[in-house]
Amino acid sequence: MILPDHHIRQLATDASMIDPFVDGQVREDVISYGLSSFGYDMRIATEFRVFTPNIHNSVVDPKRIDERAMVEYETDDHILIPPNSYVLGRSVEYFRMPPDVLAIVLGKSTYARSGIIVNVTPLEPGWEGHVTIEISNATPLPAKVYANEGIAQVLFLHGETPEVSYADKKGKYQHQRGITLPRMDNVQKPHARGGDTQSTG
User: What Gene3D superfamilies does the record point to (predicted)?
Assistant: First the structure.
């Protein structure tokens, strides 16, 4: 089932599922964040990686990403995403997913209605870390994203504990902190299915 606010609160406070945890919605003069009736609106932090094409990059290869194409940027207020480009950010919150809970992350409507697309893959049972957030500007104009404000809603789904959790298979994005660029596993491990999720972030 999908977890309501009181179950999310209990997991956040008793099991540190969300840290820091904002108990309730912060809405005034900001893009909202915090606990809602059936989810949690996470914030985006002040650090970003901006996609900047250069002479070294003729193609974006997710197996061999060239870090020179992802320029580091930090701000106290906002970032401007160039037209038809994208940036990587990360959540303010550090998530510790219980072994029987999976989370689905959806972009907030305020950004979606402005042509700003937020993409995050599921947070698997047993995964923990900062969520790496992919933000695309689908407009022909620069687009503004506000740091330390809401960026996406997290929905938590409870189910039976799987035989192999993300922690059990030692996923490549486990315990990630800050913004994490694409990684490839060096060795194929048993039960490695689903390894492209957060599992991302």
Answer: 2.70.40.10
